[in-house]
């Protein structure tokens, strides 16, 4: 019985180690960090004085500036925070920038005046467009090569990705594109049209939180909810001048900058099959027009770019302002992220580091699997040897066999 329990225990330990090993290898193979993950370390502010201001969240100040020409506009981050992807509409290009050093790794020349950007971190593709062209271009972020061109029905005013699967690079994620009179939907993997939604008031900025609703602002001062599957249109707000939105991933609330009323409007999530809530849920009042907003994915902090050359930092749960940080210039777009890794400032170096990490991960698997097995085998051999020695000792001991020297016949 003791042997059976020992074997069962060791097998359970080995199974647990195997599961942990799979997790180690998976973690070495695909990144799990997000560009706006958790409590961020940094915020990148495009349009700050000199290019892109790098705001250290803990210090609550701009600690350095990445010089980028061409009116840097939309910014995205690689999943590990290593690379910045920046649109430069005045130069008609997209640049890949090493976040740690600020050096430009490569750039892609694109049609129109590309100012909009959507990043598919799992498929590792960038989607770029702007109001100077009706073409959305997908770009390889490692080589700055053009992978596909998607022709839409008009100048592009909004771009967003709807992630319909978690981590499969062959997913059927959707690319939503707004133009002058409609929102078009495309299959992100092949560019095939999936339909369009008429919006006569002129759709502009798009935001797609997890769930079944897409949010769009309009040229005529509205915020609308569009059904992700049904494509129904539901009015939510009107009478404002609304900028690029963001959402709180923990609550589903959508934050909308309103330049006209000097406020941030917070919208309750709209869910299909439920009554549309009265919007807004609440507002955060300002004394300066806000240009854009970024909410960290843990819902703890918010950063709003202001027209007076500052960024206001919010405590989201506490619903109060923390500080205002001077950036200079005309801040227009913000994204939060991690400190960039110390090693690997080019895609090639990052790929090599990832390969080394993967090999190290498999090495850890080998250690975790085989070392306990060897220890278990050694334990078993020592135990059998001890049992055999004890049995031999019993056979040599006359007391074990019921005899004693005084009982022998002379």
Concise summary:
The chain has helices at residues 2-29, 347-396, and strands at 42-48, 51-56, 61-67, 75-77, 83-88, 93-98, 104-109, 116-120, 125-129, 135-140, 145-151, 158-162, 174-178, 182-187, 193-198, 203-207, 213-218, 222-227, 233-238, 246-247, 254-258, 263-267, 282-285, 290-295, 301-306, 310-315, 320-326, 333-337. By secondary structure, the protein is an alpha+beta fold.
Task: Give a written overview of the molecule.
By secondary structure, this protein is of the alpha+beta class. The protein is about 20% helix and about 40% strand. It has helices spanning about 1-30, 345-395, and strands at about 40-50, 50-55, 60-65, 75, 85-90, 95-100, 105-110, 115-120, 125-130, 135-140, 145-150, 160, 175-180, 180-185, 195-200, 205, 215-220, 220-225, 235-240, 245, 255-260, 265, 280-285, 290-295, 300-305, 310-315, 320-325, 335. Helix 1 (about 1-30) runs antiparallel to helix 2 (about 345-395). It is elongated. It starts with a helix and ends in a 14-residue tail after the last helix. The model is unreliable at about 20-35, about 165-170 and about 405-410 (pLDDT under 50).
Cα shape: elongated
Number of strands: 28
Identify the quaternary structure here.
single chain
Query: Which ranges are low-confidence, i.e. pLDDT below 50, for 5 or more consecutive residues?
Result: 21-35, 166-170, 406-410
The span between the termini is 46 Å
Estimated structural class: alpha+beta
Q: Outline the biggest β-sheet.
A: 4 strands, antiparallel
Number of discrete helical segments: 2
| Widest sheet: strand ordering | 3-2-1-28
């Amino acid at each position: 019985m003791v042997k059976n329990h020992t074997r069962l225990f060791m097998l359970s330990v080995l199974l647990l180690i195997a599961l942990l090993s799979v997790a180690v290898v998976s973690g070495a193979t695909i990144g799990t960090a997000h560009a706006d993950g958790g409590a961020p370390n940094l915020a990148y502010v495009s349009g700050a004085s000199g290019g892109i201001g790098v705001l250290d969240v803990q210090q609550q100040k701009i600690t350095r500036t990445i010089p980028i020409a061409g009116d840097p506009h939309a910014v995205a981050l690689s999943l590990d925070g290593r690379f910045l992807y920046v649109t430069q509409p005045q130069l008609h290009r997209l640049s890949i920038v090493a976040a740690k050093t600020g050096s430009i790794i490569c750039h892609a020349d694109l049609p129109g005046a590309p100012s909009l950007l959507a990043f598919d971190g799992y498929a590792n593709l960038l989607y770029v467009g702007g109001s100077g062209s009706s073409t959305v271009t997908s770009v390889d972020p490692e080589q700055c090569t053009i992978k596909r061109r998607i022709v839409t029905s008009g100048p592009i005013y909004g771009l967003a990705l709807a992630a319909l699967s978690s981590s499969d690079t062959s997913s059927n994620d959707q690319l939503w594109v707004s133009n002058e009179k409609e929102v078009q939907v495309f299959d992100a993997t092949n560019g095939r049209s999936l339909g369009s939604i008429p919006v006569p008031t002129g759709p502009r900025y798009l935001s797609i939180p997890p769930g079944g609703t897409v949010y769009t602002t309009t040229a005529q001062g509205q915020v609308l909810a569009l059904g992700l599957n049904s494509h129904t249109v539901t009015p939510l707000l009107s009478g404002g001048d609304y900028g690029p939105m963001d959402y709180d991933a923990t609550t589903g609330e959508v934050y909308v900058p309103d330049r006209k009323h000097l406020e941030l409007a917070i919208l309750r999530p709209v869910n299909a099959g439920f009554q549309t809530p009265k919007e807004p849920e609440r507002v955060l009042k300002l004394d300066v027009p806000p240009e854009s907003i970024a909410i960290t994915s843990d819902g703890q902090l918010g950063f709003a770019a202001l027209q007076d050359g500052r960024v206001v930092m919010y405590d989201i749960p506490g619903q109060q302002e923390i500080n205002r940080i001077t950036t200079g210039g005309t801040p227009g777009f913000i994204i939060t992220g991690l400190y960039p890794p110390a090693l690997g400032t080019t895609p090639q170096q990052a790929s090599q580091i990832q390969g080394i990490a993967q090999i190290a991960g498999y090495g850890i698997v080998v250690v975790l699997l085989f070392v306990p097995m060897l220890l278990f085998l050694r334990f078993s051999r020592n135990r059998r040897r001890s049992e055999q020695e004890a049995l031999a000792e019993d056979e040599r001991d006359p007391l074990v066999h019921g005899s004693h020297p005084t009982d022998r016949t002379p």
